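Sat 14:20. Reprocessing the chain from the morning session after the first attempt stalled halfway. Input below, unchanged.
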Amino acid sequence: MTTNGGSEPVIRRTPVFCGIVPPHILDHLAQHEDRTLSDAALRTLQHDSAARTRRRVTAVRTLTTAAAPAAADSTPHRTIYDAGHRTDLPGTEVRQEGSEPGQDATVNRAYAGLGATFELYLKAYERDSIDGSGLPLNASVHYDVNYDNAFWNGDQMVFGDGDGEIFTDFTSSVDVIGHELTHGVTQYTANLEYYGQSGALNESVSDVFGSLIKQYSLGQTADQADWLIGEGLLAPGVHGVALRSMKAPGTAYDDTRLGKDPQPATMQHYVKTSRDNGGVHINSGIPNHAFYLLATALGGNAWERAGQIWYDVLTGGELRSDAAFADFAKLTVAAAKARYQAGEESEAVLKAWAQVGVQAS
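Finished this time. Tokens:
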């Protein structure tokens, strides 16, 4: 840690590269006998690997001071670019904040998804954009050729069009947009290390708020929500409903081309692996399921009490960057007690973590 020339500490935060489609799915597709599928997966894997390397050597500087509450009249500052099926970012500007929708549905969906994410963080948590200080929200669409992913690169969103056989346009799911932008929120707050359990927490936090953004935009209660991440991304003919299920981890897909969803719902089936940064996209199913259990136990709008507890932990300053599941769980109990005193919230938090096998007391 260094200082900025004054008394305020400055910490170097390294943005992670995380595509919404996990490596184990792309690995499976890359081995398919259909060259159309395998070539698209290999191209995506090669790009993602290079992007991860760039992220390791690129850091952004952010102050450790907490963001001030957003003003009631805070507004997003969105710009959408068309990458033109190239990889040079950002591309050609095609829509600015406040402009009318155009003919390109992908551009319009990206614009709307950025807005939905901004609105949830502003209205529910008084957070002004990703960094809490009005960060402009930029996105590039039509990235590369048959690119099977979407990602936050530390500065902006990037969307592929999919290959048309397995994956559709990556702007089609607002929870995917919210998931990736939430990696930016984590980057500016807890900065959870992208490996092992802290990496799985990083992924899970993005799934949690991605789902909440979808629920908020649709006006759904916890009981009405589908709790799916990436619903609508899978092309017709793929045997599956989404990339992940928070309600029932391990059931999102079972397809000869994709493989079977490997996510566990409890610590009993925790996956030990050196792949995927220690299984960050796999074991995230455990804290995901804990949040689902909490939200449905409390009922009502999940972004209110359950989401507020998770947000308090993410932004409270006590969550270590290398936190394990149990560390996060204990902080959620403390956050529930701090905000709601000795009400049903803290008991529901304890029960939810106990149901997935994580010690929270």
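Confidence is low (pLDDT under 50) at residues 1-12, 53-65.
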